[in-house]
Amino acid sequence: MDAAEGRFSVGYFDAHDPNDMRVAMFEDGRDEVTVKLGGDGDRTSVRIAVADVQRTFLLDDRAFAVDLTLLDGERIVSGLLDESGHFLVLIFNEAADRFYYVRNPAFPAPEVMVEETVGPHVLRFGERSRFCFLVHPATGREILIAVHADQIRRNTWYDGPFDQVPPRLSIGDLVRRAYPYVEDAGGVDEHGVFLERPDSRIAISPYIAYESGPRLIAELATRLVVGPGPEAWLGAVEERKNTWRATDAEGTGAGPPPSAPRRHESLRSRTWPPNHWAASSRTWPAEHDGPRSTSWAPNRMVEESREPPPSTPR
After folding, report:
1. Residue among 270, 271, 269 at smallest CA distance from 280
2. Neighbouring C-beta atoms of residue 30, cutoff 10 Å
3. Which is higher by pLDDT, 24 or 293?
4. Backbone angles phi, psi at 225, to 5 degrees
């Protein structure tokens, strides 16, 4: 919500057809809309009125005051308050060119956390959100390493924090370093918004989308290592789109050769890494059927794969 500028946006979609999506921006003084911050310098609330309907929304900016000890090569991108109620800190690792989310230790967890172990590693699962955090013994950090796939598909409050990253951050350079493929997609602006798709921002989603606890634990057994610093969790926050390039889909990299069958099965694309992960999407559809597809060129499609998708929806 751009309340300080007198604007707010609303978006929704049909749960039975996510391709049927509506997004609109409203501004103070237009179409019977008023947007007012709290009076006398109070910026903790905003009053929105549409015709005769009025509501007051509370704004919480505590997430932006971050006090976290950084490791070598790290920089804080932003604090954020996720829809799940977790206060998180988005960090960029300069040495690895990777993003990751760390739970802000200044705030208690908003739900009961259940502990599991993977060898020497301790995991904490949110009983409600089903977020999975790695507890790093050397630093005491809790790093977000997995989000449940069903929550992502249904676009719930627990679909991961990527859509709560503040939209006005100057992160274009960091995005290009972490996700080189954005240059193949026409580039991004200063805020990580695709230049050729101005209604779509890069999904910073450095965590595993998991279907079940046992399968996640089995995967983490191969991804996690013991170490005093980020090397312990970098394997778990690695995204396929971190290293993917368009040349991969043309037979010169890790992707399939151009002679591969031209099918694009829902949730199973191995070519363009989807910025969204859902049954379908207006901007990055998981199904390409001619006129409904307005996204990547159809020659970027391959036979379905059994591998899980690399990214998350929005």
Report:
1. 269
2. 12
3. 24
4. -130, 165
